């Protein structure tokens, strides 16, 4: 449960970073970001076009933050690794990106694989997942392990 809460909250800076980095993409790559595409394609596959039309933003936000919480719930297993926290979070974020965009999303037909996307969009999404992973590790470490401060520069507790 602790990892889920940290994953939910870490989705905030991730989402902000995705929206900010999207502005730097070439105009022809500024289409909808993956949370929008995943929600749209999932609702269409479930024949819920009416929901998709009326409440798409709410459904996208709910799905995106729920997924962040869901995969965040698994983070306590990764937290046990003897690695610096920022590295654990970064690697976990990249792992979630790989599992999602090279794994289950294309396997279920919800999205095409990341290998078929422009490299700039993949970089955007990988960086956003690193932001999420670092935020997750920071929150998990500070909220639940009894360590009130975190020295990002030296990657140790002070």
TrEMBL record:
Alphabetical keyword list: Membrane, Transmembrane, Transmembrane helix
Pfam families: DUF1440
Membrane-crossing segments per the record: 6-25, 57-78, 90-111, 123-140
Keyword Transmembrane belongs to the record: yes
UniProt xrefs under InterPro entries: DUF1440
Protein name, UniProt field: DUF1440 domain-containing protein
Source organism of this protein record: Phototrophicus methaneseepsis
Lineage per the UniProt record: Bacteria, Bacillati, Chloroflexota, Candidatus Thermofontia, Phototrophicales
């Amino acid at each position: 449960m602790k990892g889920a809460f940290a994953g939910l909250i870490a989705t905030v800076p991730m989402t902000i970073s995705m929206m900010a980095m999207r502005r730097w993409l070439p105009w022809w790559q500024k289409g909808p970001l993956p949370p929008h595409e995943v929600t749209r394609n999932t609702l269409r596959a479930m024949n819920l076009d009416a929901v998709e039309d009326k409440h798409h933003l709410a459904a996208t936000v709910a799905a995106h933050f729920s997924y962040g919480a869901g995969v965040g719930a698994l983070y306590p297993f990764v937290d046990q690794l003897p690695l610096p926290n920022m590295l654990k979070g970064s690697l976990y974020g990249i792992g979630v990106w790989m599992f999602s965009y090279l794994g289950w999303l294309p396997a279920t037909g919800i999205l095409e694989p990341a290998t078929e996307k422009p490299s700039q969009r993949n970089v955007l999404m990988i960086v956003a997942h690193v932001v999420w992973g670092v935020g997750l590790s920071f929150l998990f470490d500070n909220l639940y392990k009894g360590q009130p401060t975190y020295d990002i520069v030296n990657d140790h507790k002070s």
